[in-house]
Structures are given as structure tokens and as C-alpha cells.
Amino acid sequence: MKASELERMFQKSFSVAKRVRTETDIGASAVSVAFAACTLARQIFESLSTVTVLLVGAGETIELVARHLREHKYRR
């Protein structure tokens, strides 16, 4: 494969990705593991106010999970 072919493929993939983001709802909500975990927890449990949450991990992702939970008033 020539460099020019590879360049053309990259440009086309970026163009398609931009079109998908602008023409669909794929970018309607935040996309991160932390946000997805909190969204799933809210779907599984009607109210996390009665549930004790154990966060396991270290680093940015677990900090984001904790922040998302605090923003939704989950304290335990």
C-alpha cells in the first residue's frame, strides 16, 4: 500500500466520522467508561440512595465515577 493510498483512507475515515457525529445522535451524550458505569448503575437501581457503592480503582477513571455519583447525590 502506498503512502498516498493510506493518506486518502485516513482522510476518508475522518470525513465519515465527522458526518456520523453530526448527522446522528451518537454524540448526544458524554462517552466515557465512568459516565457509562454511572448511567448503568442508575438504570439497574431505581435509587442509589439506599445502596452502598464500593469503588475499586485508582486514577482518573475512578475519580470520574466518584464525581458522577456525587453529582447525582449518591453519598454512600
Main traits of this protein?
2 domains; elongated
What does it look like?
The structure is a single chain. This protein has 76 residues and is mostly helical. It has helices at residues 3-23, 33-44, 60-71. It folds into 2 domains: 1-27; 32-76. It is built from 3 helices and no strands. Helix 2 crosses helix 3. The protein is elongated, with a radius of gyration of 19 Å. The N and C termini lie far apart (56 Å). The mean pLDDT is 83. Pfam families: Shikimate_DH. This is Glutamyl-tRNA reductase. Keywords: NADP, Oxidoreductase.
Quick structural gist:
Residues 40-75 form the Quinate/shikimate 5-dehydrogenase/glutamyl-tRNA reductase domain. Helix 2 (33-44) crosses helix 3. The chain has helices spanning 3-23, 33-44, 60-71.
Strand % is under 5%
Return the average pLDDT rounded to an integer.
Answer: 83
Indicate the radius of gyration in whole angstroms: 19 Å
Care to count the β-strands?
A: 0
Shape: elongated
Taking the sheet with the most strands, its summary is:
none
User: In total, how many domains does the architecture comprise?
Assistant: 2
| Total helical elements | 3
